[in-house]
C-alpha cells in the first residue's frame, strides 16, 4: 500500500489528471469518477479504506479539478467517456471495477455501454439519470461572448457552503477543509469558460432503451435523503438496468463517499469480492 502519486497525461486532446494508489499484491483495479462541480477530493474519505485491498485510480473528469479546461475540447458525456476509455487502454487496465458518483455515474454508464469488456463491475453512487439535453435557449445563450461570467455569477450566488449543505444530510460534517476542497477548483476563470462549453455540449443521460442493453453487474448505492438526485431515480435505474442491485443508506444525503465511507466500503467489498446481486 502506497500514497498517491498525482499525475497528468494527455488523452484525446485534454490533459487528464489522476491519482494512483498502487497496491503490489493485487491485480484488481478500482477507477473512481466524481460528480459535477467536484474532483478527486470527494473520495478523500473512501480511498484510505479501499486502497488496502485494491489498486485505486481516482480521476479528475475534464474540466474539473486539476484536469485540463481546454476551450477546444468537447465536454459531452460521450466524449468524456471516450477519454476515460482511452486512458484505461493506455494504462493497459482490464476488468476494472468502475465507481461513479452523481454525474460520474452517468459517465460510467456511457463507458459500460461503449466498452463493456473493459468493465467487470460497476458501482453507481447516487448517479444522475434521465436528465434531458440542455434546452436550446440555454445552448444558444452559451455562444454569447460573456456567458461564462453569468455561469460564474450563478455559482457564486449560490455559495460554496449552501451548495455543500444541499448535498449532505449531516451538516456537522461541514468544516473549512471541506469547503476549501470544493471551492479550490473554481478560483481560476478558465473553469467557467469550460463549463459554458459543457452546457452547450450536454447531450442528456442515457435513455431507458440504452440502459436495458447494459448487462454489466451494477451496484446502486443511494442516500435516503438525497435532494440532488432523489431516491426515485435510483429505483428507476434499478428497474431499467437488468443486472443491478439497489442499497439505500439511512440518514444520508447525496454525497455518500463523504458521509458514509465505511458503509460504502463494506458494500463495495462484498460486491466486488462476492459479486452476488441478491
From TrEMBL:
<protein>
    <submittedName>
        <fullName>Alpha/beta hydrolase</fullName>
    </submittedName>
</protein>
<dbReference type="InterPro" id="IPR029058">
    <property type="entry name" value="AB_hydrolase_fold"/>
</dbReference>
<dbReference type="Pfam" id="PF12146">
    <property type="entry name" value="Hydrolase_4"/>
</dbReference>
<dbReference type="InterPro" id="IPR022742">
    <property type="entry name" value="Hydrolase_4"/>
</dbReference>
<dbReference type="GO" id="GO:0016787">
    <property type="term" value="F:hydrolase activity"/>
</dbReference>
<feature type="domain" description="Serine aminopeptidase S33">
    <location>
        <begin position="25"/>
        <end position="259"/>
    </location>
</feature>
<dbReference type="InterPro" id="IPR000073">
    <property type="entry name" value="AB_hydrolase_1"/>
</dbReference>
<dbReference type="InterPro" id="IPR000639">
    <property type="entry name" value="Epox_hydrolase-like"/>
</dbReference>
<keyword id="KW-0378">Hydrolase</keyword>
Amino acid at each position: 500500500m502506497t500514497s498517491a502519486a498525482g499525475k497528468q497525461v494527455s488523452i484525446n486532446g485534454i490533459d487528464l489528471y489522476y491519482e494512483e494508489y498502487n497496491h503490489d499484491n493485487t491485480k484488481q483495479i478500482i477507477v473512481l469518477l466524481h460528480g459535477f462541480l467536484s474532483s478527486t477530493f470527494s473520495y478523500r474519505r473512501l480511498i484510505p479504506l479501499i486502497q488496502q485491498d485494491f489498486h485505486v485510480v481516482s480521476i479528475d473528469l475534464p474540466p474539473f479539478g486539476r484536469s485540463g479546461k481546454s476551450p477546444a475540447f468537447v465536454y459531452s458525456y460521450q466524449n468524456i467517456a471516450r477519454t476515460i476509455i482511452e486512458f484505461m487502454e493506455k494504462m493497459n487496465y482490464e476488468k476494472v471495477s468502475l465507481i461513479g458518483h452523481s454525474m460520474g455515474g452517468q459517465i460510467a454508464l456511457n463507458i459500460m455501454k461503449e466498452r463493456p469488456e473493459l468493465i467487470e463491475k460497476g458501482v453507481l453512487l447516487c448517479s444522475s439519470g434521465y436528465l434531458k439535453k440542455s434546452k436550446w435557449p440555454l445552448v444558444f445563450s452559451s455562444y454569447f461572448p460573456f456567458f461564462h461570467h453569468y455561469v460564474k455569477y450563478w455559482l457564486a450566488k449560490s455559495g460554496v457552503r449552501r451548495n455543500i449543505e444541499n448535498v449532505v444530510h449531516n451538516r456537522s460534517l461541514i468544516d473549512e477543509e471541506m469547503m476549501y476542497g470544493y471551492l479550490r477548483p473554481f478560483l481560476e476563470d478558465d473553469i467557467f469558460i469550460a463549463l459554458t462549453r459543457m452546457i452547450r455540449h450536454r447531450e442528456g443521460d442515457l435513455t431507458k432503451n440504452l440502459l436495458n442493453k447494459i448487462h454489466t453487474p451494477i451496484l446502486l448505492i443511494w442516500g435516503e435523503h438525497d435532494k440532488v438526485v432523489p431516491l426515485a431515480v435510483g429505483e428507476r435505474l434499478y428497474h431499467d438496468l437488468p443486472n443491478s442491485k439497489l442499497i439505500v443508506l439511512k440518514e444520508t444525503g447525496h454525497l455518500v463517499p463523504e458521509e458514509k465511507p465505511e458503509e460504502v466500503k463494506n458494500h463495495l467489498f462484498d460486491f466486488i469480492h462476492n459479486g452476488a446481486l441478491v
